[in-house]
Amino acid sequence: MLTTGALRAHLLAAHLAGPVATSREESLRSYRLFAARDPRVLLGLDPEGIWGQRELIALMAEKCGVSADPDHTSGQDVIDPELTLTALDAFADRLAAVAQRRAPVLLGTGHPHRLLGFYAALADALSAAGCAVLTPAHGRCIDITTRFGLRTYNLAYVRGVALVREPGASCPGCEPGAHTHSPLPVRTALAAAAEAGGPMPELVIGDHGWVCGAGQLGFEAIGPADTNDPALFVGQAEGSVSVVVPLDDAVRSDYYRPLTRYVLNRACLSQ
Question: In 147-229, which ranges are continuous DSSP H helix?
Fold first, then answer.
């Protein structure tokens, strides 16, 4: 069993928490864009409240541990490891609850290069516990607006985890998938599940648009978020997102393995 102390040490050593790679400038830019309701950072969320930059800084200071000083405008952002640990416990509790009910789940990621292994291990454990790991709309084409213009991607599943790929990128040795913040993949998956008559997921696990897009549609959603992803924390504050784990979501994929062991042990899902 990985102790809390050992996990805290790992979070800091791997820069998952503490000083992280995300810069203060990058986070503040995301807060400004969110305050302006830019869809690129809303991630599918339609906030109920008025969130200005100062309100967002205060929220992110409370939920992540970033500086609460609006005049702090440069340097590296900081995540409080105690907030990460507390959120990981809540994350594990939601996994345990859905496993006890043997309820259907949907997992998806916009960070397949970094987080695919983390979600795949959760999918394996939930499946072993009797949960149906859903894979609706496999192979469906999705048009997503990117900084390079409108691009067509295919929705695919790898070890039970949804992601998007560029057409023709499913060959052996290809990259696992594309990085995206879009809520369109989860909307497509949920719409396909509904059209097929279900089952519908009782829990959506993911990041970026997977969490915000699902939460906005009324599905319980949980996942990690970095300091420059205020949408998930706003969703949590407003009640549309269940649990958000503050951490750097773009470190080496193997650095997430201790987190996987920790949450599966706490959820009594270790295999």
Answer: 184-195, 208-216
Q: How far is CA 213 from CA 100, 108, 152, 169, 184, in A?
A: 25, 11, 19, 25, 8
Tokens coding 44? 């599918």
What is the bridge-based pairing of β-strands 161-165 and 149-158? antiparallel
Say which DSSP state 253 is in. G
The two three-digit tokens of residue 24, written as one number: 């203060």
- Mean pLDDT for the stretch of residues 217-240: 98
- Residue found by looking up tokens 């900084």 in the block: 147
Long-range contact list for 165-173, CB < 8 A, 24+ apart? 167/141
233: nearest Cα among 43, 68, 92: 43
- Indicate if the alpha-carbon torsion angle 86, 54, 69, 231 is positive or negative: positive
The number of angstroms, rounded, from the C-alpha of 140 to the middle of its chain's C-alpha atoms is: 21
Segment 148-207, tens digit of pLDDT:
788 899 999 999 999 999 887 655 555 689 999 999 999 999 999 999 998 999 999 999
Average pLDDT on 31-55 reads: 97
The pTM of this model reads 0.95
Q: In what order do the strands lie in the sheet with 149-158?
A: 141-146, 149-158, 161-165, 105-108, 203-206, 221-225, 243-246
